[in-house]
Structure formats: C-alpha cells, structure tokens
Design a protein that fits this description.
The structure is a homodimer of 142-residue chains.
Chain A: H1 3-10, H2 14-22, E1 29-30, E2 36-37, H3 42-54, H4 59-69, E3 74-78, H5 82-119, E4 135-139
The structure holds a DNA duplex (30 and 30 nucleotides).
DNA sequence: CTTGACCTTCACACAGATGTGATGGTTGGA
DNA sequence: TCCAACCATCACATCTGTGTGAAGGTCAAG
C-alpha cells in the first residue's frame, strides 16, 4: 500500500509517516517510480509508534524497542549488544514507572468523578445550566 | 521551604519549578522579600507533575488533573463544570490507552530480554567481549 | 562592609514532534 | 490531451518542555 492509504488507515498525517521513516522507525520499499510501498504490518507498527510517542517515549528509544515487538511468534535477536540489553532494561524500568504514575492518576480521576457524581443532586435538575461554580470539600473515607 | 530545597528534594531544576508555576501547576506563597515559599506537599505535587509530563501529558491537561490528586482523604470538588467533567473522562480514557500500550510494550521487552538471555550460552564465557553481533531468529511458542 | 550563597526576573537558544506550503513528477480517467 | 489525484523532496514555522546565562536584590557569616 502507498502512503496515502497507510495514513488513512492509521489516522496519521503523511508528514509524520515520512518523519518516522527519517527517524529509522519505518523502512518502506520503493516502487520503481519512487513511491513508498508499505506492507500490511506497517499498520500495526505505526499504531505502536504513535502509542509510544503519546506515552512520552522519544523516537530514539522507540527505535530500540520496536525490534522486540516485531512479528508475533518470532523474536528477532539481532545484534544483542550488551549495551542494547542494558538500555532495554533501563527503559523497561522507566515504562513501569510511567505505568504506575498513570494508574495512580487515573484511579484518582475515577474517584474524583465518582465523588462529583455523588455530590450532584438531581435537585436542580430543572435548569441544564449551572453557571456559577460550586466550591466545597468532600470528606472521603479512603 | 524555598525553591532551592524543593529543587534538590525533587531532583528538578529551579527553572522548571518556575515554569510549572507559570503554567499554573504550582502556586507557592511569597516571603516578604519576594522569595517563593513552598509547603511540604509541594514535593509530592512536583513529583506527580514530572511523572505525568514524562508520560506524555501536557501541562494544560495536568493542570486539570491535579485537583483530583490534591491531598489524601479530601477531594476538592470545585467548579465541577460539565465541561471539566467531560474533559476528565476523555483524559482518563486516553490514560487507559497509554497504560495498555505501555504494558504491552513492556511485556514484549521482557519476553525479548528473556529470549536473549536464553540464547546467550555461557559457552564462550572465556572472553568477556563478543565484538561481532549475532543475527538470528528464535521461534517462541507464544 | 564585604563576600558568597541564595533568590528574583528576563531573554535567548535548543530539540523534538508536528503543521503547512512550495515545486514538481507520475498516472489514470474524462 | 489535459486534469485531478496521487506521489516526491525541501524548507520554513509552530508549540512545548528545557538549558543557560545575564543583571540584579537579600541575607547571614566572617
């Protein structure tokens, strides 16, 4: 498939697909006319890239992680440099920290939303607009 | 405590603490001489901010999330605008996606590392250096 | 009083991810 | 044949989070 289709199927601007390639995250073939030609697996790959970027990982790190996610059932153990392994271990640790931070915050948001819903009496249900902001504290038995 | 101590205790450059304040994430008191004065809870708050920033959230979003994490046992239900609630729900969803993406990738890294360790025979244990990179595939029964 | 270690504000610089547009080649259908 | 819809490269701009440093105020200790 060409860049346009991949862009559409992944919801990614063409610009970004070229950028990821420039960063070495994507290596499409080229048609005789110079057009980029992507394989089917590129779709998941791009989705992975975007997810990791959105989770705060820089392309440089994603580039090192991607080989671990290659295709299912086949793990590419290439150039397993001591240094690469160390990097992966370090990044895995950082990812764990991120996960913990995100889970903590997400749960806190959930608690908050639940508390707000509890506090929202359907009393003033008549008006869908409540312009002035309420400002009070809720004691919660954690 | 003043900015220097907070910086040291959180491992954060002073520059960043001022920046977070500029973005409305931190609101320290001011001493009569103009120095910023932080309370004890600022330490955790800064750590939270940094963790979320590192997880890909922009300050604009963190600003909306922070009130949910305020102090333990007391949830501040302030200005619970319909719009704020909607935003929080949306961001919570995105955080969940990030978490899933990170977990998937982290697990893949773990599998990879395990496979590499398995492949690393202590056979050539004599030489601590193995300059040339091995390049092969491992079939793994997922 | 002076020195050094703090603090203030301000401003410019940078890197990374992304937006936008100019300029031009390829290709397939009206 | 010519137009529309793709594609290519290149260059510049933007936004965010950071780094760095200048110019100057505060304060405690020598």
């Amino acid at each position: 498939m060409r860049i346009g289709e991949l862009a559409e199927r992944t919801g990614t601007p063409r610009r970004m697909l070229r950028y990821y390639e420039e960063q070495g995250l994507l290596v499409p073939d080229r048609s005789p006319n110079g057009y980029r030609e992507y394989c089917e697996r590129s779709v998941d790959r791009v989705l992975q890239i975007r997810g990791l970027l959105d989770s705060g990982l820089p392309t440089r790190v994603i580039k090192q992680i991607l080989p671990c996610l290659k295709q299912p059932r086949s793990i590419h153990v290439a150039g397993a440099t001591l240094e690469t392994i160390t990097t992966l271990e370090r990044e895995r640790e950082r990812m764990t920290q991120r996960i913990e931070c995100l889970i903590r915050s997400r749960d806190a948001i959930s608690d908050y939303l639940e508390a707000v819903r509890g506090a929202r009496r359907p009393a003033g249900a008549g008006g869908p607009e409540r312009p002035a902001a309420a400002d009070y504290d809720l004691a919660v038995s954690a």
